[in-house]
Every structure is written in C-alpha cells, then in structure tokens.
Amino acid sequence: MIRDVLRMGDPRLLQVSKPVERFGTPELAALIHDMQDTMAALNGAGLAAPQIGVGLRVVMFGVARNPRYPDAEEVPFTVLCNPVLTPLAEEFEDGWEGCLSVPGMRGVVPRYTRLRYSGFDPKGTPITREASDFHARVVQHECDHLDGVLYPMRIRDLRQFGFTEELFPGEDIADD
Ligand code: NI
Q: Which end of the chain is more exposed for a tag (fewer CB within 10 A), N or C?
C-alpha cells in the first residue's frame, strides 16, 4: 500500500528510531511492502521507515540503470534493518541530494566517499557490503533518517540549496 510521506517540519522526522527486535514477522514484511510501494510510486532512490511515520531502523534503497542517465551508477535494491555504517576513507565529497520528505528541492551535501555497511535483511540474515561514491551517498542519506537527520541539516553552504526547477531548469529530475 502506498503511504503518505512525511514532510520536513513534521516532528516525527526528527526522532531517533528504535532497532528492529523481531525479524521475519508479518508486521515487518507488511512495513517493507508499504515502503517499497511508496518508494516505487514516487520514483525515489531510497526510503526510510520514519518517512512513513514508523520509528524503526529500516531503510531501503536502489537505483536501476536508466538509459537517460548513462553515467548514473546502479545501486542494487537493498532492504537493511539496524544498519551500521563504518567509513573506510576520511575524505568527504560534495554532491547534490534530494529527499522525498523535502519535495522539489536539492542541496549540496558532503558525504564519506567510501564506507562499509552492515545490518540485517527482513528475515534476519546478516548483510555486509562496501560501497563508494553514489551508492555510499544514498546509504548515508537513508541511514541519517533513522537518527532524525534530514539532508538540509548537513548543507554547509545554503547558497547551494534550492528548488530543483530553478537550479536545473529544463532538466527532468526525479523528485526524491
Ligand atoms: Ni530522504
């Protein structure tokens, strides 16, 4: 079921979410199903449970190859519960981000370029992966939601924050 996505200003987006304690339950499966439906309907690159008002440490992300953006890196569709991020390099890189909870806007955010992420799939099977660049950026953005952090809170230069239509006129950019 497609759920409403909370928008910046809703205090629930600022809360720290709780860990998933029981895996493989119908409740967790239903949550993930709703998140997947919602993310697909809005063409998002990722979604975190608190964005639909559920304060659990569950994120999902994934970017399919798109012929219109041949340079865009593919990110495998992943559901991650109780994620833990470990940076593997000290460098940050600036990059444009958007968020379904901040519709119609984009901002430049510094993120670690390389990291390891681990967590569990919905059945409780451990997942560990290394990621860099765009993949690493998407994971950091989604996991921030679990700690009540929205990307505008990380923007260093607010001149690089604005409405997508004004920043990138004429470009067809998804509203995520
Ligand atoms: Ni977001």
A: N
Distance between CA 114 and CA 63 in Å, rounded?
Answer: 18
Contact 164, 173 (CB under 8 A): yes
Spacing, Cα 100 to ligand 1 middle (Å): 6
Domains of the chain: total: 1
pLDDT tens, 121-144?
Answer: 999 999 999 999 999 999 999 999
How far is the centre of ligand 1, averaged over its atoms, from the C-alpha of 13 (Å)?
10
CATH of the domain at 75: 3.90.45.10
Q: Residue 176: inside a domain, yes or no?
A: no
Q: Is 174 part of a structural domain of the chain?
A: no
Full residue range of the structural domain in which residue 111 is found: 11-167
User: Which residues are designated catalytic?
Assistant: 142
Ligand 1 ion: nearby residues, β-carbon < 5 Å: 99
- CA 151 to centroid of ligand 1, rounded, Å: 7
- Contacting residues for 149 by C-beta, under 8 A, at least 6 apart: none
